[in-house]
Each structure stands twice: as C-alpha cells, then as structure tokens.
Design brief:
With 208 residues, this protein is mainly alpha-helical. It is built from 8 helices and no strands. The two termini are 23 Å apart.
C-alpha cells in the first residue's frame, strides 16, 4: 500500500499537471476550476476510505494554511493597481458583489427547498454559508489581466490603442471586484457562520 506522502505527492502532481496543462493551451481559468472539481470528486468517491483520505487532507490543509494561502492572497493584493482605483469603480464593484450574493442566495433557497429533512434554520444557515468568497475568486481574479498583458507582450495588442486601454481598464475592474469580494465577504460571513451555526444548528456527536 502507498504511504501518506506518496498519496500526497501523487495528488499534487495530478493537480499541478492539470493546472499548468490547461494554462499551456490557453485555458488558465479552466485549469483552476478543473483542480477544484478534481478535489471534490476525489473527496466524494473516497468517502468510504477515510483512513486513506484524512492524512492527506490534513497535510494539505497545513501546507495551505502555512504557505499556500499566504502566497496567494499576498500576490493577489500586490497585483492591484491602486493608482487606478476610484470611488465610482469601488461603488460599481460593491453593487456587482451584492447582486451576485442575492443571485446565489436565491439559488441556494431553491436548492435547499428540495431538502425535506432540513428545517428552516438549517436552510437559512446554508444561505449564509455560501456567501463567503475567497479562494476561487483569488485564483481567477488575475486571469483577464494576465491575458491582456500577454497579448501586449507578444505584440497582438497595441498598448497605445483605445481597444487595449479599454481591455486593461476592464481587466482591472474584474480584479478589483474579486479582491473587494474577498475583503467584504470572507471575514464578515466567517463571523456570521460561527454566530448563526451556534444558534441555528444542532450539535451531534458523530462516531469517529
């Protein structure tokens, strides 16, 4: 049987190959989503093999906590051009985030309505739990800006043309919105999840 380290390295190898493979063919955003889907699929398919999954999950969790998340959010924050921020852009980004949260909440309400064994408090908590945004937004935030900069670097886009300047402005708007969504929703709803979870959910002791 394979060791925990071997399973961890194999998982990382497949994930990195998927991520950079998609990026190599010009689909960087798709690679990020593919890695997320890969992790969810592995977790779902190996539910009955917890003794194999748990050690790898714990190791990856520590790596993410100590190294991965710090690098990701630091680099994301450094990529924001603060000289191009203004009140109108921030206001528009905030409106987009609110509209997105409302849309997601409506979809969660519709989905949880099908859960006959859930009570109203559990369904309400599901709405709160889906609101925090961080990891995926951080991973995809710079895709548009990276694409425009790549087109400028290889000569496809003329940096002085109105089209390119508009593309840069739009890409920066996407990046700003993603960063703002993290700043607003991640800490706010993390606190709300703890408060609402303690008040609305029943605690059960599950056998280990």
């Amino acid at each position: 049987t394979s060791s925990d380290t071997e399973r961890l390295l194999l998982t990382l190898l497949v994930a990195m190959s998927t991520l950079f493979g998609f990026k190599h063919i010009g689909m960087g955003g798709g690679g990020t989503l593919a890695v997320v889907t890969l992790g969810a699929t592995l977790q779902n398919k190996m539910q009955d093999q917890e003794e194999l999954v748990r050690p790898v999950t714990e190791i990856m969790g520590q790596i993410w906590k100590l190294v991965g998340s710090v690098m990701l959010f630091t680099l994301l924050g450094a990529s924001v051009d603060q000289s191009k921020l203004d009140g109108n852009m921030l206001a528009m980004a905030a409106v987009i985030i609110v509209v997105g949260l409302i849309g997601r909440s409506i979809s969660v309400v519709g989905t949880t309505a099908l859960m006959r064994d859930w009570n109203i408090k559990e369904k309400a908590f599901a709405v709160v739990a889906q609101c925090p945004k961080a990891t995926v937004q951080a991973a995809l935030a710079t895709v548009a800006l990276d694409h425009v900069n790549e087109m400028i670097a290889n000569g496809t886009f003329d940096v002085n043309s109105p089209f390119t300047q508009n593309a840069l402005e739009t890409a920066n708007m996407i990046l700003t919105t993603a960063v703002l969504s993290i700043i607003i929703t991640a800490p706010l709803f993390a606190v709300l999840m703890v408060i609402c979870g303690n008040r609305w959910l029943e605690k059960n002791s599950l056998p280990r």
